[in-house]
Each structure stands twice: as C-alpha cells, then as structure tokens.
Amino acid sequence: MPQRGVGDAAVSVAGNPQLVTVGASPFTYTNQSQNVETLYFSQPAGATTTVAKAGITLASILTPAATTIPITVFVGPGQSVVFTYSAGAPTLTRDVL
Q1: pLDDT tens, residue by residue, 13-53
Q2: Which of 23, 75, 88, 93 has the most CB atoms at less than 10 Å from its CB?
Q3: Where are the beta strands (DSSP E) in 1-97?
C-alpha cells in the first residue's frame, strides 16, 4: 500500500526531507509542489526571527545566546512563507507530505 499525503488518499509521499538554500533576509519560500510541505526553520543563537504567512505574523522570536529555536510551518501548494531574521545563517528543511 503506498504512503498517503495529508488529507488526500491519492497523493504519494515525495520522499526524504531536503535542505533548502536560504537567501538574504527577508527570505520568501514558495511551495512549488502539488502537496502540503512542512518547513523546519532553525534560527541560530543570538538572533531575532519573524515568520509570516499571507501577511500575518505567525511567530516573532528572540533567540537567547547558546540556544537554537526550531520553527515548524505547514505550507500548502502555491503558498508562501516569509522568514525575516537579523543575523546568522538559518537552516531550512522542507518535507513534502
């Protein structure tokens, strides 16, 4: 039996999570697949991050020193998420459901 996508019994799972190259802030990620994607964003210590979707702020975080805070966002097909961060090289991983 093939694996299924969230909410759709006819959608096959795309495979393993993939790292995304993050550009300069503000960075916009657009889901170009036909499936829902989960984004895992990890901001380095000592930085601030704001995550927005459809013009609404989902999270605004100040990362304390020596701490990394992960942020998880679900993105539907054609939707975009904007990551604005103050410093450092964040990590973004996408997982197609």
Answers
A1: 567 899 999 999 999 999 999 999 999 998 888 888 899 99
A2: 75
A3: 18-20, 27-30, 37-43, 48-53, 56-62, 69-75, 80-85, 91-96
- The domains of the chain are located at 24-96
Q: Please, which residues have CB within 8 angstroms of residue 53's CB and are 6 or more apart in sequence?
A: 73, 75, 79, 80, 81, 82
Is the per-residue pLDDT at 94 higher than 60?
yes
Its pTM stands at 0.79
Tokens of 47: 């930085």
